[in-house]
């Protein structure tokens, strides 16, 4: 292979990307070397199995991916701002369009929420760690190296360009030759392994490791949403795993699963993709519902209204999420009966979602609302999500969908649902639990500036797109015509407003690190659930004494009854898992094998997979059962953390 075939050449923007990557990498290496932090990086982060540190790494990765996906979005909106723009050519636009959707769903939304689950769920249920800490580390590095594999495609080999849904036959070897589409298939496959393992791990942790007295219907609502999401992951992700494997075999080994020439079926890809893809929408929305429920209850100073109804609505949504996938291709000729059935199931899913909206409003009713930044994100979510939901019901009508489906009306709908649901929730959750992670609050004044810039920008960006869609502007175009003015430049201005809002949010992290008052209580918001019962910073073992739980607002009840949470007379040695570099090494080998397979270097791929198998054998004979923290060390840690 020639060097100019290996590296992407000829695009000034990509050259700029290469220079940026080289400079940032050099700066990181210089700083780690200058401050002698390599051992610290290996010991504290690369080999950790602590769920809190793993959660922080997920969130940092997700913020980096939000930046990358956001830059892609701004480039697209710049190209679509005015007629006859030549900011991007057609090929580059297709690549940006593909990577934007893929990164935002797979490498931003999911890891952000999984990061919050990692940090919060064991604390909310009174557990000391995940059921399988080693597997949790393996899951993170699987996601991280999958994201890395996908992201290097725009400087090495060429980015995928068949859309984030990668429909066959467009994504097949004949119509998308070269390594680009292989980066998509293997990057998603590698990160998907980690997601599936996380789903199993969370499910076992929640079902088997809850504090004494915490029955299922005494769990916090965020833990409930995580449990149900884990069930969806376990049942949906194998479908994606199989679909990606079949297309990889098609492209690299010449099979014909998705091509008519070999008696395959292109439509099978659409079915498999959306049988995973629609439950995936709820994988990123249900945890968001859980976050908003926690935030609204805390800052309305009230117990969540209709707790049992909220739980059952999550369960019903999860069940229905597997029965609606055909609404993604009403226009592909399945027939009136099939379309009618899936139209009904699509509308039915609005009912339990509506129950949740009314329960949140009832929680807010006659409450003394504290307008913190986290609460503002939650309050902005409700009307924004309702707009997205109502237009979703419009799209759920099969006859109307023939008009709406291939237009910007659909683009506006799913961005209204996913941004107001998932992105608002990610920001709300990060602001809310930030003191528990880092020992200080984010600055409220800067946080509110970030909130207003982002939310106003969001509506200015996507509301005009409903009208552009009704005016006939099709999606997947890279040029606009004068008839679609002036709504397109307005939409572009809104997109840049969101970008500025995100930049202010990142600045707030830096500013707060420098200037915010350090937390001493561990309970800065006067919280309701068990995570606020731990001191800040949270010790490695989370709870010196595992609490006994009587309600789903367990900590609120403990405070109301003046119960003693920490009693030195009841301390016992605590068993903890050892740190290990095996997950990092194993997944780096799988990354190497996947990279080789992208370029169809079969022998190198086999060598990488052999390394992975060797690591599995090493793990099988690893009899290290962890270590105990003795009572003296626990006392010292607790007294220091609690200021005793």
UniProtKB/TrEMBL annotation:
The chain crosses the membrane at residues 12-35, 56-76, 96-121, 133-156, 183-207, 227-249, 269-292, 304-325, 337-362, 374-398, 410-434, 446-467, 487-510, 590-618. Keywords: Cell membrane, Copper, Electron transport, Heme, Hydrogen ion transport, Ion transport, Iron, Membrane, Metal-binding, Oxidoreductase, Respiratory chain, Transmembrane, Transmembrane helix, Transport. PROSITE patterns: COX1. It catalyses: 2 a quinol + O2 = 2 a quinone + 2 H2O. Residues 34-550 form the Cytochrome oxidase subunit I profile domain. CDD domains: Ubiquinol_Oxidase_I. Pathway: Energy metabolism; oxidative phosphorylation. Its main location: membrane. It is a multi-pass membrane protein. Binds a copper B center. Heme A3. It holds the Pfam family COX1. Its cofactor is Cu cation; ferriheme a. Its EC number is 1.10.3.-. It is found in: Cell membrane. It comes from the Bacteria. Catalyzes quinol oxidation with the concomitant reduction of oxygen to water. Belongs to the heme-copper respiratory oxidase family. This is Quinol oxidase subunit 1.
């Amino acid at each position: 292979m020639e060097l100019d075939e290996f590296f992407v050449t000829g695009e000034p923007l990509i050259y700029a990307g290469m220079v940026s990557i080289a400079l940032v990498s050099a700066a990181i290496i210089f700083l780690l070397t200058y401050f002698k932090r390599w051992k610290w990086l290996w010991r504290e982060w690369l080999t950790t199995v602590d769920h809190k540190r793993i959660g922080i790494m997920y969130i940092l990765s997700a913020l980096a991916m939000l930046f990358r996906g956001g830059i892609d979005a701004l480039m697209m909106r710049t190209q679509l701002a005015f007629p006859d723009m030549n900011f991007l050519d057609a090929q580059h636009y297709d690549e940006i369009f593909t990577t934007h959707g893929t990164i935002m769903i797979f490498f931003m939304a999911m890891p952000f929420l999984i990061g919050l689950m990692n940090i919060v769920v064991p604390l909310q249920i009174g557990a000391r760690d995940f059921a399988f800490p080693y597997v949790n580390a393996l899951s993170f590095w699987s996601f991280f190296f999958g994201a890395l594999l996908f992201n290097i495609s725009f400087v090495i080999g060429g980015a995928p360009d068949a859309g984030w849904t990668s429909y066959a036959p467009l994504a097949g070897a004949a119509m998308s030759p070269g390594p680009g589409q292989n980066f998509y298939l293997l990057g998603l496959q590698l990160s998907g392994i980690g997601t599936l393992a996380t789903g199993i791990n969370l499910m076992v942790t929640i079902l088997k490791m809850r504090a004494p007295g915490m029955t299922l219907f005494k769990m916090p609502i965020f833990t409930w949403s995580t449990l149900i999401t884990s069930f969806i992951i376990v049942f949906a992700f194998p479908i994606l795993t199989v679909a990606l494997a079949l297309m990889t075999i098609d492209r690299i080994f010449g099979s014909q699963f998705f091509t008519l020439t070999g008696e395959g079926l292109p439509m099978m890809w659409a079915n498999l993709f959306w049988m995973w893809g629609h439950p995936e929408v709820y994988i990123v929305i249900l945890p968001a519902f859980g976050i908003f429920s926690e935030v609204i209850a805390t800052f309305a100073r009230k117990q969540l209204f209709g707790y049992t109804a909220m739980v059952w609505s999550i369960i019903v949504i999860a069940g229905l999420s597997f029965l609606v996938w055909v609404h993604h291709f009403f226009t592909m000729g399945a027939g009136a009966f099939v379309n009618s059935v899936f139209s009904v199931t699509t509308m039915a899913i609005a009912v339990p979602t509506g129950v949740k909206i009314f329960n949140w409003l009832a929680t807010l009713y006659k409450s003394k609302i504290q307008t913190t930044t986290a609460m503002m994100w939650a309050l902005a979510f409700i009307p924004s999500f309702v707009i997205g939901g109502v237009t979703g019901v419009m799209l759920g009508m099969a006859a109307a969908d023939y008009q709406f489906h291939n237009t910007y009306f659909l683009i506006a709908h799913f961005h209204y649902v996913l941004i107001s649901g998932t992105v608002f929730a990610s920001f709300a959750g990060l602001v809310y639990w930030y003191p528990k992670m880092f020992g200080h609050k984010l600055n409220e004044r800067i946080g509110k500036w970030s909130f207003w810039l982002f939310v106003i920008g969001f509506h200015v960006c996507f509301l005009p797109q409903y009208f552009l869609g009704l005016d006939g502007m099709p999606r997947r175009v890279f040029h606009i015509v004068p008839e679609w003015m002036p709504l397109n430049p307005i939409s572009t201005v809104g997109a840049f407003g969101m970008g500025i809002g995100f930049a202010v949010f990142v600045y707030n992290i830096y500013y707060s690190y420098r200037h915010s008052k350090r937390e001493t209580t561990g309970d800065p918001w006067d919280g309701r659930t068990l995570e606020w019962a731990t001191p800040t910073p949270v010790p490695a073992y989370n709870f010196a004494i595992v609490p006994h739980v009587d309600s789903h607002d367990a900590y609120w009840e403990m405070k109301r009854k003046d119960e003693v949470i920490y009693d030195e007379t009841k301390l016992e040695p605590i068993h903890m898992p050892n740190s290990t570099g095996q997950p990092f090494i194993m997944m780096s080998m799988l990354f190497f094998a996947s990279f080789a397979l992208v370029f169809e270097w079969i022998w190198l791929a086999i060598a990488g997979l052999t390394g992975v198998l060797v690591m599995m054998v090493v793990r099988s004979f690893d009899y290290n059962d962890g270590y105990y923290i003795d009572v003296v060390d626990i006392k010292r840690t607790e007294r220091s953390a609690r200021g005793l």
